[in-house]
Design goal:
The protein is of the alpha+beta class and 536 residues long. The chain has 14 helices and 24 strands. It has helices at 113-121, 164-167, 178-184, 240-248, 263-266, 296-304, 308-315, 338-346, 355-364, 382-397, 409-414, 441-447, 464-475, 479-493; strands at 5-6, 25-26, 38-45, 71-73, 79-81, 84-91, 94-99, 145-149, 152-156, 201-202, 208-209, 213-218, 229-236, 254-256, 271-276, 281-286, 320-321, 373-378, 402-407, 427-432, 500-505, 507-512, 520-521, 531-532. The strands form 6 sheets. Strands 3, 10, 11, 12, 13, 14, 15 and 22 form an 8-stranded mixed β-sheet that branches. A hairpin with a 3-residue loop joins β11 and β12.
């Protein structure tokens, strides 16, 4: 367990740490591999109760301990085999997945190619959160994702896709049992329907007590190493103060994304607080294709009215840094053409407060600003409420009015996948992150048309040049061409403030001393793969 630190996710020529208003901190990418066993671990989910555990329909911190992916993301952001022993393009538009032959589902049924075809196929539905990663797969029935052997799956594309392999290290490649999924149908992933996966923990029937907890037990036949905690119980605590008290008093054993405002309390000795690299950032984005938030001038003006450094000091307790756009620098530091990506990022203007300029934009927007803008946040989530409050204060300075809608955590989570939950909402204040390596996939979710993978493009943002450059970057087989095309797209979409980034941040994980030597907690990237209580 390392001491508290903070290294800059900003470009590091020599890997040295940087300073913040909170002092120097040390980045910890992972805990030492676990060796000890424990009967029970109670883990807090700070985002609240998930709407579903279906990997195709939700991203949360529970699913990765239930469902293994074809490939696995490592603490250094590299990718290694998972259920697939190999997964590679054999030509620019043909991708072959070779499966291990020793992996079984919780019920003892061996994983087959048909299970993988079924699981990947769920993401071909535009309602899937992973649809964007599959947007270039041949959509013809029986032509895109096919079983070509008992343990071989072949994926055919309509154009080269440089981002696809990276996506297989995320939940878009979580493998579920076909027979079970077809049996429960639309109930898959719900408290009633459950799941059938291969991961280190099993969700038994009745294990999810809706509104209360999700209780999982160790998979005794887990294929990828010993599971150290016999029982992993998830509780839902979105209120920061309540969570801090429960953690420091030992009522809850651990949590990821703990509130930075509680840093001093966490350093009191009852447990260990670690800070890891992250691709996460706090910000807000438009939730509607109509109204003020859909107008880029309104978004730009609101962005110009917010003091980023003040935001960092007050909301994330200094544990953050000014980030120019939605793709953080950390995400491309190890890429082949990192210098090109860095030069493109450096060329973007650094956000600065400009009240006069913001007022001018409002005046020239052509909008009636007499009605308030509605910003949705999850109830009890301190950082998001503070974000909305700062937005509210900044808006007042430039002639806008903002109303804050504190939604129940389950409703707030559902609005990302259910358009009816977004009715009457103009902006969503949230924390975004890149779940898998690569730079193209994440912004594509927001800037591309829906049929091209823009599943979170709720404002119907449309710029033909951006679309052209983004698709060219994704289909490029040459890394330099891909980098050039992405930088060209970013130069256009970043000023539009489609997703207004207020601060890049770090991942904070708190572990009770009870868990010392038990967990392998990957404190990196703010991704759902941040917790492992068993396996390699």
């Amino acid at each position: 367990m390392a001491a508290l630190t903070l290294a800059g996710c900003a470009p590091r020529d020599n890997g040295s740490d940087t300073s913040s208003s909170s002092g120097k901190l040390t980045i910890v990418d992972s805990q030492p591999a676990g060796t000890k066993t424990v009967d029970k671990v109670t883990w807090a989910i700070v985002e609240g109760e998930p709407a579903t555990l279906n990997p195709a329909a939700s991203a949360n911190l529970i699913i990765p301990n239930l469902c293994d992916n074809l490939l696995t993301l490592q603490p250094d952001y590299s990718i290694k085999p998972g259920i697939a022993k190999s997964a590679e393009f054999v030509n620019p538009t043909t991708f072959v997945i070779e499966l291990r032959d020793d992996v079984k589902f919780w019920d003892g049924t061996p994983v087959t190619a048909d299970d993988v075809v079924y699981s990947l196929g769920l993401n071909m539905n535009p309602t899937s959160q992973w649809y964007g990663a599959f947007a270039l797969v041949n959509p013809a029935p029986g032509q895109g994702i096919v079983a070509t052997g008992p343990h071989e799956v072949t994926v055919h594309f309509v154009a080269p896709d440089s981002a696809f392999r990276d996506a297989l290290s995320g939940q878009g490649a979580a493998v579920m049992e076909k027979a079970y999924g077809e049996k429960v149908g639309a109930a898959l992933g719900t408290a009633d329907g459950g799941l059938m996966c291969t991961g280190p923990y099993e969700l038994a029937k009745g294990g999810w007590k809706a509104g209360s907890e999700i209780d999982t037990t160790a998979n005794p036949s887990y294929w990828n190493g010993k599971v150290l905690a016999k029982n992993l119980n998830y509780t839902f605590v979105s209120d920061g103060s309540t969570l801090t008290t429960a953690l420091t008093q030992g009522e809850i054993d651990g949590a990821i994304n703990v509130p930075p405002s509680s840093r001093s309390a966490f350093q009191g000795g009852a447990g260990t607080l670690t800070i890891g690299h992250s691709t996460a950032s706090y910000g807000f984005g438009p939730a509607s294709a109509t109204g003020l938030a859909a107008n880029p001038k309104i978004r730009q003006a609101l962005s110009m009215a917010i003091d980023r450094q003040q935001y960092i000091d007050t909301v994330v307790n200094g544990l953050g840094y000014v980030q120019k756009t939605i793709v953080p620098e950390f995400s491309f530091q190890t890429m082949q053409e990192a210098k090109t990506y860095q030069a493109g990022y450096d060329a973007l203007p650094t956000p600065k407060v400009d009240i006069a300029g913001a007022k001018k934009l409002i005046k020239n927007s052509g909008e009636d600003v007499s009605k308030p803008l509605v910003v949705a946040v999850p109830a009890g989530a301190t950082q998001f409420l503070q974000t909305a409050t700062i937005m509210q204060s900044a808006a007042k300075q430039i002639g806008l009015s903002i109303k804050i809608d504190e939604m129940q955590a389950s409703d707030f989570g559902a609005l990302f996948y259910d358009p009816t939950k977004r009715q009457g909402v103009d902006f969503v204040a949230t924390q975004g992150y890149l779940e898998t390596p690569g730079v193209v996939g994440y912004p594509s979710l927001f800037v591309l048309p829906a049929d091209k993978g823009g599943v979170f493009n709720w404002s119907n943002y449309s710029n033909p040049e951006v679309t052209q450059h983004m698709l060219a970057a994704r289909s490029a087989t040459d890394p330099q061409t891909a980098a050039n095309e992405f930088v060209s797209a970013q130069k256009i979409f970043a000023p539009d403030q489609l997703q207004t980034t207020l601060a890049g941040t770090y991942q904070l994980t708190y572990l009770n001393k009870k868990l010392t030597g038990v967990t392998t907690s990957v404190a990196a990237y703010d991704s759902p793969w941040a917790l492992r209580l068993g396996g390699k």
